[in-house]
């Protein structure tokens, strides 16, 4: 067999293999097909030696994102209010070969946030990326009727003021590294009015405005600030079938998975998004199309 024929057959075989891989990848990326959680994250090391701080990472989106960053080489400090779940996530990441440290912190408490950032810097030597994800849902009731100010104030203190508090403490650590990236969890609910969950929607609209303002303030310090706005995502916060019911009404026809939000967060944190700041990346199955 001639060398030319051998080379041509090898090229054809290689092309067929590549085509199969592309087809497999395309199938996995189908809009209507959720990714398999066990294989949803790569291990290409693009965040090797980067230090990432994540709030609200004991479940759902935060948990998936903490794992994803750790699998790609980052040193991860993460917090939440549930110590048992925090220890569980830390153990899972360690078992997968990643490095992560859990610290209990409540983003409503100034001292907790200050101690969290200080612990991150002490443990890993600095801070490069912050993902402000901690948030709660709830219903404060109807205005003019039995409006529950305690519920409303708790939502605002966590979802909006908590992000302000976190950014305020993260900025000095990011400046000390010459800049970095901040990503805030907003929501597609921040774009619309909502009677039943007015306080939640209001808090997320505030996060979108905060993201733009902080981006303007911090651009001169080489700190990019962006948001990610999930649609209906299959997390404990949207339990009881709410995510599936809402997802069925999206153009994608399904609820999103936490790993799909993690991918968006990692894009915004990566050097690939070096010219992106003050932006909101909606990952919502087409809800706001």
Structural account:
The protein has 289 residues and is α/β, with parallel strands linked by helices. It has a single domain, classed as Rossmann fold, CATH 3.40.50.720. Helices cover 46% and strands 13% of the residues. It is built from 9 helices and 7 strands, in the order H-E-H-E-H-E-H-E-H-H-E-H-E-H-H-E. A 7-stranded parallel β-sheet has the order 3-2-1-4-5-6-7, with helices on both faces. Helix 2 (60-71) crosses helix 9, helix 4 (110-124) packs parallel to helix 6 (161-176) and helix 5 (149-159) runs parallel beside helix 7 (198-218). The radius of gyration is 21 Å and the shape is globular.
Average the pLDDT over all residues and give the rounded result: 87
What percentage of residues falls in helices of 4 or more residues?
Answer: 40-55%
Judged by helices, strands and strand pairing, the structural class is alpha/beta
Kindly identify the CATH topology.
Rossmann fold
Q: Which residues sit in consecutive blocks of at least 5 with pLDDT less than 50?
A: 1-28
Count of β-strands: 7
Neighbour order of strands in the largest sheet: 3-2-1-4-5-6-7
Radius of gyration: 21 Å
Total count of helical runs of at least 4 residues? 9
Q: What is the architecture at the second tier of CATH? A: 3-Layer(aba) Sandwich
- First CA to last CA: what distance? 56 Å
CATH superfamily: NAD(P)-binding Rossmann-like Domain
Give the overall shape, derived from the CA principal axes.
Answer: globular
Count of structural domains? 1
Major sheet:
7 strands, parallel
Top-tier CATH class: Alpha Beta
Could you tell me the strand content as a percent range?
Answer: 5-15%
Order of helices and strands: HEHEHEHEHHEHEHHE
């Amino acid at each position: 067999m001639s060398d030319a024929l051998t080379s041509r057959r090898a090229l054809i075989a290689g092309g067929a293999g590549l085509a199969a891989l592309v087809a497999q990848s395309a199938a996995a990326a189908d809009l209507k097909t959720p990714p398999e959680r066990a294989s949803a994250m790569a291990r290409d090391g693009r965040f090797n030696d980067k230090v990432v701080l994540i709030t609200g990472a004991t479940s759902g989106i935060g948990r998936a994102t903490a794992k994803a960053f750790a699998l790609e080489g980052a040193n991860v400090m993460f917090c939440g209010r549930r110590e048992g779940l925090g220890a569980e996530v830390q153990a899972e990441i360690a078992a997968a070969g990643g490095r992560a440290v859990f610290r209990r912190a409540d983003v409503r408490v100034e001292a907790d946030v200050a101690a969290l950032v200080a612990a991150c810097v002490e443990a890993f030597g600095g801070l490069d990326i912050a993902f402000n994800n901690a948030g709660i849902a709830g219903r404060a009731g109807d205005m003019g009727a039995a409006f529950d100010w305690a519920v409303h104030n708790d939502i605002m203190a966590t979802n909006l003021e908590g992000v302000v508090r976190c950014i305020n403490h993260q900025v000095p650590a990011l400046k000390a590294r010459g800049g970095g990236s901040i990503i805030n969890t907003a929501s597609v609910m921040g774009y619309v009015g909502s009677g039943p969950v007015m306080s939640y929607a209001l808090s997320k609209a505030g996060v979108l405005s905060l993201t733009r303002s902080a981006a303007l303030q911090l651009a001169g310090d080489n700190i990019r600030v962006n948001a990610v706005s999930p649609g209906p995502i299959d997390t404990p916060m949207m339990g009881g079938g709410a995510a599936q019911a809402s997802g069925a009404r999206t153009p994608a026809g399904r609820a999103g998975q936490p790993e799909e939000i993690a991918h968006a967060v990692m894009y915004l944190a990566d050097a690939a998004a070096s010219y992106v700041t003050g932006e909101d990346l909606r990952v919502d199955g087409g809800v706001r199309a």
